[in-house]
Amino acid sequence: MEKMGFHSRWVGWVVECIRSVTYSMLINGEPKGDIVPTRDDSLLFCRARVEEVEKIQELLGKYELASGQKINSSRTTIFFSKNVPTTLKELIQNSLGVPEIKEYEKYLGLPAVVGRNKRASLNYIKDRVWGKLQGWKEKLLSQTGKEVLLKVMVQAIPTFAMSCFRLPVGLCQDIEMLICKFWCGQRGERRKIHWKKWEMMCKPKVEKGLGFKDLCRTTTPHSNLALETTMAVLINPVSGWWNIHFIDRHFYPPDAKLIKSLPLCSTPQPDILIWPKEKSGNYSVNFRYKLLCEWQNEELNRHQVSDVEKRFWNNIWKIKAPGKIKHFIWKACSNSLPTKENLIK
């Protein structure tokens, strides 16, 4: 950058951004390690035109002369969209001298390109869940062991992808079906009786359920704002009132109407994040999931579990006994035992 005439102060800023980046990995729920990256992978985008490709080659040539580094052609690939004609593909590929790939490799475990058929691009999540379940014999695991395996390992597989993509409902239902079959002990073509609906098992333990996550509920976004967006962007700095056009553009109509109905303070206040539903004021994904469950129950006019019932179910799981005893008590109290009466139902 210095050879190309950039100011030393600007060069220092760029170098500081590169050298100060570190990464950590979650091991058993705790961040471990202080990983410093030593290499960079770049993605260059352009239209499928020979003149644009030649311009990229010119820029890369200048970079090589200025930095003393050289592009590794053996590790460089090119990806075309489906609308590019075959003759143009061959022309550009021969100009660059790099191989073409039909499906772009994953980046950080996620597909770098997701087309219109999102189900096909994200179907690898279902395959990973299936592979994880096939690695365990359900006969060797107790109900408690199955519960821990499904909650901690299997249902955690889609979590990373769900932070970037909204998973198709059909894919979520297929994953839940695999989990439900494993819980009931069904393998291959052998059918097993499901003594409790999956919908009931996804309820919290204090509400007669087992606390499994409903993947379909966790894929519903509330807005398309970035995570670092603050409250200030929602307020018009001139009028001191809500930025109506911005809110209507980034939120669903019911949410936008609710936001615009809130009164604002007439004097400027510090912009801080507060989650009023928690005593600590901090937002948690777990509490948001519980809130979504409550909203859905209210919309469907379902039976609300009373405080007495919650204490009853909570006391069952607090019993000082092996996990299999707790699960048996839960089955008996929730009428989920394999009895003739339940079979007739």
Largest sheet: 2 strands, antiparallel
pLDDT < 50 stretches: none
The strand order across the widest sheet is 1-2
Overall pLDDT: 78
Count of structural domains: 4
Shape verdict: extended
Euclidean distance between termini CA atoms: 75 Å
Over all CA atoms, what is the radius of gyration? 27 Å
Report the sheet-strand fraction. under 5%
H/E element sequence = HEEHHEEHHHHHHHHHHHH
Tally the helices: what do you get?
15
Secondary structure: number of strands? 4
Oligomeric state of this protein = single chain
> Structural class of the helix and strand makeup?
mainly alpha
Helix content range: 40-55%
Word description of this protein:
The chain has 345 residues and is mostly helical. The protein has 15 helices and 4 strands. The chain has helices at 8-19, 50-67, 86-96, 118-122, 124-134, 143-154, 159-162, 169-184, 198-201, 244-250, 253-260, 285-299, 307-317, 323-333, 340-344; strands spanning 23-27, 30-35, 106-107, 110-111. Strands 1-2 form a two-stranded antiparallel sheet. The chain has a two-stranded antiparallel ribbon with strand order 3-4. The protein is extended. It starts with 7 loop residues before the first helix and ends with a helix. The relative contact order is 0.06.
